[in-house]
Amino acid sequence: MPYRAPLADFRFLFEHVIGLDRVRATDRFAEAGADVTDAVLTEAARLAEEVLAPLQRPGDLHPARLDGDVVRTPPGYAEAYRAIAEGGWIGIAAPEGVGGMGLPMTVATAVNEMMAGACLSLQLNPLMTQGQIEALDHHGSPEMQALYLPRLVTGEWCGTMNLTEPQAGSDVGALRTRAEPNGDGTYAITGQKIYITWGDNDFTANVCHLVLARLPDGAPGTKGISLFMVPKFIPDADGNPGKRNSLRVVSLEHKLGLHGSPTAVMDYDGATGWLVGAPHGGMAAMFTMMNNARLGVGMQGVGVAEAAFQHALAYARDRRQGRVIAGDTDAIADHADVRRMLMAMKADTFAARAIGLSCAVAIDMARATGDEDWAARAGLLTPIAKAFGTDTGVEVAEAGIQVHGGMGYIEETGAAQFLRDVRVTAIYEGTNGIQAMDLVGRKMMDGGEAAFRLLEEIEKNAEGARANFPNMAGATWAAAETLREATEMMLTREMNDRFAGAVPYLRAFARVLGADAHLRAARAEGGTGPRSTLARFYIKRLLPEYAPLLVHMREGAAELYAMTAADLAP
Amino acid sequence: MPYRAPLADFRFLFEHVIGLDRVRATDRFAEAGADVTDAVLTEAARLAEEVLAPLQRPGDLHPARLDGDVVRTPPGYAEAYRAIAEGGWIGIAAPEGVGGMGLPMTVATAVNEMMAGACLSLQLNPLMTQGQIEALDHHGSPEMQALYLPRLVTGEWCGTMNLTEPQAGSDVGALRTRAEPNGDGTYAITGQKIYITWGDNDFTANVCHLVLARLPDGAPGTKGISLFMVPKFIPDADGNPGKRNSLRVVSLEHKLGLHGSPTAVMDYDGATGWLVGAPHGGMAAMFTMMNNARLGVGMQGVGVAEAAFQHALAYARDRRQGRVIAGDTDAIADHADVRRMLMAMKADTFAARAIGLSCAVAIDMARATGDEDWAARAGLLTPIAKAFGTDTGVEVAEAGIQVHGGMGYIEETGAAQFLRDVRVTAIYEGTNGIQAMDLVGRKMMDGGEAAFRLLEEIEKNAEGARANFPNMAGATWAAAETLREATEMMLTREMNDRFAGAVPYLRAFARVLGADAHLRAARAEGGTGPRSTLARFYIKRLLPEYAPLLVHMREGAAELYAMTAADLAP
């Protein structure tokens, strides 16, 4: 079943749920009217459906491979990449001054979701470049910006992020890659990096690696880390790719999925690099790149969830099996248990999409207004959008396999590929455990202010809905209130108690945000229609999960250590 | 990390949780004393650890393949199969009269779990044969029993189950395979069967297919289905494999996992078959085979959960990353969020194992005493053991990937293989949705009597524990009571309302059964020690999930149909 971009959902969310009108009311994004965003989404949908979606299976069957020192990409990827680049989609949110479209992050986020849903393994490439554009736009020198940004925005060159080393994964501060000054303003970068997404390819003229490394006087830990631009080919005086730099792809990983996307082990052997931002300021630059990427990865989860849902729905509407008791067809989609699965898949995908787009709205508002509250909201929502978006991707892909029955286990069906592909999104750009720790740690350093502000809005929305939707409004209000109390309680706890309940807390938060989005959708629809039915399904059957999650969260850490890790062994 | 059979858990469960003493007190199983069962488990553990576990990765890397008309199995499988057969493990629960060990199903279930945990793809072969032995023992003619049983029990021949056809999966009654009388007491079987596990191999002298087909006068639906024995080679007068039968493997499936196990499309072209049981009595015979297999499949889930847990634990105890706040090591196993995952994995695996073994005890008691109540309990627990065991397998394998971080996505690590392999167990032998519908439908045709009897025992156990363990006992009692009320309510509902909540209901039931097992473990341990810590973890943090599950269940079907399947499309 071919992928269909969920345009109606985007339009509905833009107008009725996430409040894009506030973004449009700013000077910066005044031109992003409904006619413009609609045209943009329609064009991106066409690309996703017609150009990217047909590459989903071929990318799995013909993995990227290392051929000598060249990375060969799956058939069709080069052409599709060019279509993405020529459509201007890489620079959709980049400043117009460097050739970007200058559109709101909200629109870029929707576009990225569609491309990820259509072909995740290829979409990863422009997503990485977008992160690099963001980092250079904020931290690069004017010369570096002038040289790299236009070429990245057009897709002539692409970008990668080089953070991880074998001993330095979640703990970036443990990295060992060295940067020695060459005396001419450049640095010699030496070290090995792993898990480098799209570490090389055979379709861009250059590959620009942003590499975290330590200067000779860099302190141990994260405070001594600097960021360097290390291009595969060193640009000549005209800005064309010149001499080959001393870096190479050592090998590509054999992964559970995303076979179309080359994940490289990279070796830097005195490679020439240029400092990005201040010495020892690498973490700040990295977080710029990473926060952007975290929302993008969350939307990858949503995109795959949408694709896996559509795939399962099409199968369930076609497959006849057993006696159907209710519904208007004799297909398995009308079996109660299959219907339950399909509705849960759709309701969660909608919730995750709304959370991701709300995060994007906050980013846009922060950029357009400079308002600290909006920046804090973006910071709060980013780990939730990343973790819940990707968890939803995994869960919906799982459910999609189950809807297919035995066919779900056969690779030709394509249902299993969604799970294999999306599984890593819950891991990369910071595992979902790291996201949860970010939420209860760094993102609560404001004393919970951003969280309380958001929960107030949710309670207010619920109060406004109470007259017409007493049950849904009451359940949403009660959940938000319980979450508020749990947040207050958590703020009194030691950090390890917070960490012990971080993952359940994040999920409970997402459940409440999802209820708020569904309630807004039901209100906008007037309470009758598919969106209202879905809202009732979500609020009555999925939202209640928040209660035991918060019970779990409140238990804290002590009991986890009443036995040792050795005691856990058989 | 090598697989270690969880012998201590089995011993503890046998003595303190599942009440194997009652089985031992019967005449039939009087010889299965602790010394005997201990020796048996120890020997099986050795086989699992030393012979089967080393084949886990090779079976994935060297899939079974069709070479002309011969199925080639992965390197080492033939030798390991012989070791299983020669150890007598195929006939562990088979009657001694046909060469079996005549041991309780409880012991066989533990042995099967170990073999599945060590190498699921190979263990599937003997599991299928065990189901066939069971079916022939109950439904075969004396001549058929004399011919087949000894050869199946020794593993000289092996057995398969042929149920599914492209249009007849969960709905077996839709099958089209025909059986025409040959006039000499045999039948000509013609049709195509799919998803035939271990449809052929290159290490047994014969492959005995039990095939569901319809006689010329067979009514449509399940009532007109008969069961036939259709051997690959027709036994000659001496019982040796003779003439090749008219059946063949058309192709092998490309599956998400279990690459070592050949899943065949089988073609029967007038193949000679012998009727098993009464004409049109195929479903009864199939259910004998299937009920056995369902418990076996549930324990496959538990076995893989155990293996995936051990694999993740070993990694987490070895891997150092980031600053550890609590615990006695600096490994990631002492990070609160990783500890949370590991404890949930172990606690759920223990619960699922206890449920499966309790189901086996009920089967043993029913066989040994003929007591209908025990048979009803076995019937009630079978779908729960199957669905919760396999869901736990999938969830623990998922969590195992997450514990590994980026390494979990790299195939060489082995973490992803557990998920790929175990995923099908939630589908085959009746999807977990079908199990749940069996629980709320067929297994409640006694007016809930078996369920209420079991819940009474659980409440009684909780009451007995209240003095020493007020919190755990109180929570378990309250959960059992809520489940009792939900069951009563459900029994008043139309079947489609039951089906709409069947999966959440089954899971809530499993949560309560798990709490009962953990509480018994804590009582037996005296409240201090790792088992008690795990019990508190489970009862405080995992059990509470039952409440929203039962809320979900109570909602019923109506709202699921307030929108059509077409409304769900984007």
UniProtKB/TrEMBL annotation, chains A, B:
| Cofactors, names only | FAD
What residues does the Acetyl-CoA dehydrogenase-like C-terminal domain cover?
Answer: 454-563
Coiled-coil intervals, chain numbering = none
| Molecular function terms, GO-annotated | oxidoreductase activity
What EC number(s) would the UniProt record show?
1.3.8.-
A Pfam short name:
Acyl-CoA_dh_C
Q: What is this protein called?
A: Acyl-CoA dehydrogenase
